[in-house]
Design goal:
Shape: globular
Radius of gyration: 25 Å
Distance between the termini: 100 Å
Strand order of the largest sheet: 2-3-6-1-7
Helix content: 40-55%
Largest sheet: 5 strands, parallel
Strand content: 5-15%
Structural class: alpha/beta
Number of strands: 10
Number of helices: 14
Order of helices and strands: HHEHEHEHHEEEHEHHHHEHHEEH
Length: 387
């Protein structure tokens, strides 16, 4: 009788994630401790992708080059399963790689601003692939075959994606991502130089141990419904659910640290989220233009909007906001009576001007704008109610 083959002992998940975080800290300078927590959890979640209904993207973004984004992707690459660097990959190459059936790649997309930037009009297929692939049911439809023999085929798009780039990303990506706002290292911030031929092997050892832990943790993670921190719901909850499930599965101090990181990064994303240009318009009207008044002529609204600092209105594709565009943008939103917001007559001294009434905007403000400032701004001089 032969002795049974001993089973592989379980891996201490909490201690392993501590090592993964420490590995990142050797080579990366992230803007906060919350970022290190999130990235370590994201590395682990890539090994259990089939246990989740969705996968959050992780986005390393900065306003300037030289902020450590590419190095962050390089370290992630050593820790995740089947990494696929996709700087110049076509959409066809990506969705065929994901649907090949021999394990899902983890796509690492550097210079993502070339895909979503102002000159990226020919990258709609890549946009569609990245938008569809965050859900396990996500597919990309393509015609295959020649001439009249073409048929429509669905290619699975679900895979883990980490991106790095300058500036920002479309709302469809940002709302599905954990966003790490990278900065250039200060003079007093130092990191260990990363040498691929030396340090890749260290990362791969951690990767293999993450894969080993994942096999033992699969039952703990599958179907988990982790408790969300207060105030985290809707899309942010979808983003963080897999990461919190990983934290709960490893135990130790990670459940607490993960939820603290969740609150920190979700709060930061909301502070940086200006919403669509339409929501920005509504918010600026509420918080800066029509404070304390119930109506204002269009000419006065445009003067005040175009004079706002840190606002886009004075330079919309090279031109200031004008009456025609203001009217078009506001007409996309409805009054409380479910009518498009339009200008109305406002009686002034000796004349009648077209303008907008606060009463027509209240419903849109309540539905689309973030909460108003805790300390309302005082009314602008000379903007007392007109009759």
């Amino acid at each position: 009788m032969t002795d049974p083959i001993p089973s592989t002992p379980p891996v201490d998940g909490a201690a392993l994630l501590d090592e993964v975080e420490a590995f990142h800290r050797r080579f990366n300078v992230f803007p906060s401790a919350a970022a290190f927590v999130a990235v370590a959890l994201w590395d682990a979640h890539a090994h259990l992708l089939d246990c989740f209904d969705s996968t959050p993207r992780i986005a390393f973004l900065s306003p300037e080059p030289g902020s450590g984004k590419t190095r962050a992707l390089e370290i992630v690459e050593t820790l995740v399963p089947q990494p696929m660097t996709a700087v110049n990959a076509s959409a066809a190459a990506l969705f065929r790689s994901v649907s090949a059936g021999n394990g899902k790649p983890t796509i690492l997309f550097d210079e993502i601003d070339t895909v979503f930037g102002p000159k990226a009009g020919d990258n709609e297929e890549l946009r569609g692939f990245l938008n569809a692939g965050h859900r396990r049911t996500g597919v990309t439809y393509r015609c295959i075959g020649d001439g009249g023999q073409q048929t429509v085929q669905a290619f699975p798009s679900y895979c883990a994606v980490a991106v790095a780039g300058l500036g920002s990303l479309p709302d469809t990506i940002m709302s599905r991502a954990v966003v790490i706002r990278m900065r250039r290292r200060a003079r007093n911030e130092t990191v260990e130089p990363f040498r691929a031929r030396i340090h890749e092997a260290e990362g791969h050892k951690l990767r293999d141990r993450l894969a080993q832990w994942a096999e033992h943790a699969r039952d703990l993670v599958m179907g988990a419904w982790p408790d969300m921190p207060e105030g985290v719901s809707d899309r942010p909850a979808d983003v963080w659910e897999p990461l919190l499930a990983i934290a709960d599965a490893v135990g130790g101090h990670w459940p607490e640290r993960a939820r603290a990181a969740c609150v920190t990064l979700v709060t930061a994303s909301r502070a940086n989220d200006k919403g669509s240009v339409g929501v920005r318009l509504l918010t600026d009207l509420r918080d800066h233009v029509m404070v304390g008044i119930d109506r204002l002529p269009t000419v006065a609204i445009l003067d005040r909007l175009n004079a706002l600092d840190d606002a886009p209105w004075a330079d919309l594709q090279g031109k200031p906001l004008d009456n025609r565009r203001l009217s078009k943008m506001l007409a996309e939103y409805m009054t409380a009576d479910n009518e498009p917001i339009t200008s109305r007559n406002i009686k002034t001294a000796g004349s009648v001007l077209k303008g907008y009434y606060t009463a027509d905007l209240w419903d849109a403000w309540a539905r689309y704008c973030p909460p108003p400032p805790e300390s309302p701004l005082p009314a602008l001089p000379g903007t007392e109610n007109m009759v």
